[in-house]
Inverse folding.
């Protein structure tokens, strides 16, 4: 499921919300103003400035959707996909989503592309996915640009073209999409679709890491650890490994454990190292599992594990 269109991403509607009181919005909606109907549908669904009311949300959203409002149509699709406001109905959801896409909403085009790409609720169709991703990407939607980049990178629905994948990721990254910033960093680091450049890789990892992207945080930590693209700095490495580890990134948990044990001069630090190694192993890191297995009969580790 892709969720509702985010209200604050729509400048015009945000302004309308600031300018109009709820009674005014209701009066305008009752007179048939489609924008007010859609906005009220969203507000009642999210409980913003009004008490949450799914029945009123559905009433106003449906009125606006039937009048051809693309965001209301998108939200109707989301309602039917989620199955909370109304009974779940994939066919009805796709009908509303197509109407929204045909009425020019980029988010709906991207959602259709994703549905055909993943193939969970319809038969997977990479060509159809590319068609919709492309339409949304041309409208400048960063999520669609990143999705289309993946299709070109892996050669799904289109001929493999890592240069085009790089350019599409760059477009999305420059709009602030963390996932695209991360992928751009990986492409710079590995010289895929662009000349290898570890300094630029580190810059893009940092941009994504600062937005909370765990994979970027882990790779940035690794670059600080070995001094690649940035000056070697163990404190920075530990900082970024910890941020990723706290989000459950197994590789970061493993790397953090190794760095802590190097500096562990107290039993507390040893416990902390084993804690992160245990977390990494439980989250599927093969090297961590191997180390834990090798040392499972160590009396010291056994005691420390019991204490963590």
């Amino acid at each position: 499921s892709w969720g509702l269109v985010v209200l604050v991403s729509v400048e015009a509607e945000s302004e309308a919300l600031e300018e109009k009181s709820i009674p005014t919005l209701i009066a305008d909606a009752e007179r048939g103003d489609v924008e007010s109907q859609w906005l009220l549908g969203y507000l009642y669904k999210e409980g913003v400035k009004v008490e949450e009311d799914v029945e009123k949300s559905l009433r106003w959203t449906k009125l606006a959707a039937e009048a051809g409002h693309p965001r209301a149509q998108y939200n109707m699709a989301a309602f039917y996909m989620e199955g909370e406001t109304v009974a779940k109905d994939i066919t009805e959801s796709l009908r509303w989503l197509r109407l929204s896409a045909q009425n020019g909403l980029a988010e709906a085009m991207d959602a259709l592309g994703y549905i055909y790409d993943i193939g969970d609720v319809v038969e997977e169709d990479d060509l159809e996915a590319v068609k919709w991703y492309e339409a949304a990407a041309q409208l400048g939607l960063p999520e669609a640009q990143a999705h289309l980049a993946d299709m070109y990178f892996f050669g799904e629905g289109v001929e493999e073209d890592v240069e085009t994948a790089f350019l599409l990721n760059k477009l999305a990254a420059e709009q602030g999409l963390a996932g695209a910033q991360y992928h751009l960093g990986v492409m710079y680091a590995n010289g895929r679709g662009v000349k290898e450049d570890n300094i630029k890789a580190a810059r893009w990892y940092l941009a994504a890491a600062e937005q909370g992207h765990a994979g970027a945080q882990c790779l940035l930590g690794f670059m600080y650890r070995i001094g690649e693209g940035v000056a070697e700095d163990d404190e920075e490495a530990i900082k970024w490994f910890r941020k990723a580890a706290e989000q459950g990134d197994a590789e970061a948990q493993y790397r953090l454990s190794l760095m802590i044990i190097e500096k562990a001069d107290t039993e507390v630090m040893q416990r902390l190292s084993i804690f992160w190694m245990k977390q990494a192993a439980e989250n599927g890191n093969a090297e961590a599992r191997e180390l834990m297995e090798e040392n499972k009969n160590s009396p010291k580790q056994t005691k420390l594990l019991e204490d963590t």
In short: The chain is about 70% helix and 0% strand. The longest helix spans residues 267-282. The CA atoms of residues 57 and 305 lie 52 Å apart.
